[in-house]
Amino acid sequence: MVGTSGTDSATESLLPESKATCCGGLKRDFTQWIQWRNPGGNVGQRLPWQCLCSVLMLLEMVPYFMWVKQSWVLCLMGGFFLIKALVEIWGQQTPTWMCPGTICMLLVVYTLLVPTVATMYGYCSITSDIHFQGRDMTALVLYFGGSCYSLAYEVGRFRWKAQPENKGKLHTVGLAAWCIHPNYLGDLFTYTGWALACGTQCAISIPIYWTFELFVVPNSDIYLAERYPKEFPAYAEKTATLIPGLHSTVARKILAW
């Protein structure tokens, strides 16, 4: 036994060192610092994150409602956004934008993204410089049409994933049969409507489609390709990425710019 132990120790000393970790257990592979999806973790591990994200979301939306309290349209939009965010936080046990998988991404979302949304659609609406007849109605149609579309996809996906026979499978039915990211497609209309309701060039100038096309969608595609290596290539080949019917990558990039 002593000889075996000594051999084991010698063998271990010859093995390469395990990568050091930092920032809440992240390996020093800095590409992981911007990934919000992490397949690891169980329900018990996710619960504290979900509670923390819920509290942060509620606190960071308080200034928004103070800024827009005179506009029932913007209050309604902010309230629906908050409900949708909480559904996303609690609706599944794998990380999402609203409930990231790493501390670093959590900081990005709740010190940069959410405060930016609250400021651009809240504070910037104090001085309106875009006026035309039917602006609010157009904004409401865009906002709630996009939000309901996105929420319908998310709820449908949660229910589909909850079925035992679908465990570990790629969701490709329902709205996902038309494009790979129906939730982001809905969000495009949501944020466009929200910006229009603000009535300011500041809010309208946000490059919404550009952000989704060049940053959000590629990150999601990488995650899906890694998680479903057998299913995703065939699905991606026959299904539009973001806009139903638009399969050309070049056309999408031109539209983004």
Write the layout of secondary structure elements.
Elements: H1 2-14, E1 21-22, E2 26-27, H2 43-67, H3 72-90, H4 103-121, H5 135-162, H6 182-198, H7 201-204, H8 208-227, H9 232-238, H10 249-256
Antiparallel strand pairs: 1-2
Helix pairs in contact: 2-3, 2-4, 3-5, 5-6, 6-8, 8-10
Brief descriptors of the model:
two-stranded antiparallel ribbon, mainly alpha, 257 residues, 10 helices, disordered N terminus
Structural account:
With 257 residues, the protein is mainly alpha-helical. Helix content is 62%, strand content 2%. The chain is built from ten helices and two strands; from the N terminus they run H-E-E-H-H-H-H-H-H-H-H-H. It has helices spanning 2-14, 43-67, 72-90, 103-121, 135-162, 182-198, 201-204, 208-227, 232-238, 249-256; strands at 21-22, 26-27. A two-stranded antiparallel ribbon has the order 1-2. The radius of gyration is 22 Å and the shape is globular. The termini are far apart.
